[in-house]
Write a structure and sequence with these properties.
Elements (H helix, E strand, L loop, with lengths): L4 E10 L2 E2 L1 H10 L34 H17 L5 E5 L5 H9 L13 H12 L3 E5 L5 H14 L5 E8 L3 H9 L23 E8 L1 H6 L6 E10 L12 H13 L7 E3 L6 H14 L5 E2 L2 H4 L6 H15 L26 E8 L3 E9 L4
Parallel strand pairs: 3-4, 3-5, 8-9, 8-10
Antiparallel strand pairs: 1-2, 1-6, 1-7, 5-6, 7-11, 10-11
């Protein structure tokens, strides 16, 4: 059994609003916050629902992705009472929102491109926070999960005592057009694990977790929201944009995460649950095989698929569910028969699973355990 690491700071911003409290309220209600927007920045959002963050909630920055990241990171730093942890960053869209606008206006260079790359985005976040960036992950929808795994192993190996993991992605034309071109977007809102699912819904947001060695957390007398106790990572190398239908990669990742956590089985699953035909079928198959009748929920029909930081929203859902000893309701009609959707009722449990699947055949699983926060 490997060392479990304490989560001492949490922050987020999404279509639910700014802060963890706003997000957990949205999880409790279990209702969609997706909507269409008449906004020239995202023409496809005129007739396709998305999960958009209210502009008024964002701190000022030329990059929308960086602004989202700062909102979440500052909440996590304040929550942990720690401003000095080095930064691990996760992002997919980086500064593309600003780059697209400049390109369409005929500007081929200039400040609009300053945060275009993952490294530039991470550097900008670190500069505003006054910390050092030690790594950046851009692995499609598994970016945040990859950054968490990186952080866990850096702390376990003794390289550092704590790390701030921040994931952020803003809405942009490329993301909306790209997924629409794949014909995997439901214009009316995704329905994860429903037999009537028609595709995904795209959202934006940011998540920040301060991950810490338990001895360091004890020395600081920090409040511990929960623990990250195990991880698994497996690439199935089946297809560029689709998971292996057999689910062998996801099955390997979940099995590895459970073993890393000492063999404790989860009693609640915060699933990737995109609402696409392929993803949900694979997850449903694997869950029925490995964890039959364990209740699950996906947050994506509420706030949308937040790309590179999606795993972070799943982790916060798992950690807050453990803290409150309840599941979050998963409200979709006609669920897949093998799936048990969570009903939001009280549940006495100590471990929860978060899954992430991504382009390129990435499959990741993270195990959370209950902490000291009541």
């Amino acid at each position: 059994m490997s060392l479990s690491l304490a989560v001492t700071g949490i922050g987020c911003i999404s279509a639910a609003g700014a802060g963890v409290a706003a997000y957990t309220t949205a999880l409790e209600h279990g209702s969609s916050l997706l909507a269409c927007y008449n906004d020239e920045r995202w023409p496809l959002a005129n007739n396709c629902v998305v999960g958009k963050v209210d502009d008024s909630l964002l701190p000022h920055h030329q990059s929308r992705t960086v602004a989202l990241a700062l909102a979440a990171a500052q909440e996590a730093q304040q929550d942990a009472d720690c401003q000095s942890a080095d930064l691990l960053c996760a992002t997919c869209t980086m500064g593309m929102a600003e780059s697209e606008t400049a390109f369409l206006a005929g500007q081929m260079d200039g400040p609009a491109y300053a945060c275009h790359t993952p490294a530039a985005t991470a550097t900008a976040i670190a500069q505003d926070l006054g910390v050092t960036v030690v790594g950046v992950h851009s692995l499609a929808c598994a970016s945040f999960a990859a950054a968490i795994i990186d952080a866990m192993e850096r702390i376990r190996s003794g390289q550092v005592q704590r790390l701030l993991v921040v994931g952020a992605d803003a809405l942009c034309r490329t993301t909306l057009a790209g997924f629409s071109s794949l014909q995997v977007v439901d214009q009316h809102g995704c329905k994860p694990f429903s037999q009537d699912r028609q595709g995904m819904s795209i959202g934006e947001g940011a998540v920040a977790l301060l991950l810490e060695h338990p001895e360091s957390a004890a020395q600081r007398q920090a409040v511990i929201h929960g623990y990250l106790s195990g991880w698994g990572n497996a690439a199935d190398a089946y297809h560029d944009t689709a998971p292996d239908p057999s689910g062998k990669g996801l099955r390997t990742a979940i099995t590895a995460a459970i073993a890393d956590a000492g063999g404790q089985l989860p009693s609640f699953i915060c699933a990737h649950g995109t609402g696409t035909q392929d993803n949900d079928a694979v997850e449903a198959t694997v869950f029925a095989d490995l964890l039959p009748q364990v209740p699950l929920a996906s947050q994506k029909y509420i706030i949308g698929h937040t790309m590179g930081c999606a795993a972070g929203f799943a982790l916060i859902a798992a950690l807050t569910a453990l803290a409150q000893q309840r599941t979050w309701p998963h409200k979709v009609a006609q669920p897949i028969e093998s799936v048990r959707c969570a009903d939001g009722q009280p549940l006495h449990f100590s471990s929860a699973l978060c899954t992430t699947l991504a382009f390129g055949g990435a499959n990741m699983a993270l195990l959370c355990q209950r902490g000291t926060l009541s």
